[in-house]
Design goal:
The protein has one domain. The chain contains two helices and no strands. Helix 1 runs antiparallel to helix 2. It is elongated.
Length: about 60
Amino acid sequence: MCMFCAAIPTAAATGVMLDSQQRRSRQKRGLPPQRVRPFAVLTVLTLLILAVGSAVFHSKFPTSG
């Protein structure tokens, strides 16, 4: 498995964990939910970059991953 393919589930799990921790801490403090959730946005951007990197890697080196 290439480094991009291995990093995708790790990044997704980390992003979901950070987002849920932030939402829980805001809820405990009595604050309203955020309209833009920064960890969710960063997670989506990270996954997009990793998916593009994986596609480029697998198209250039189809037998090494």
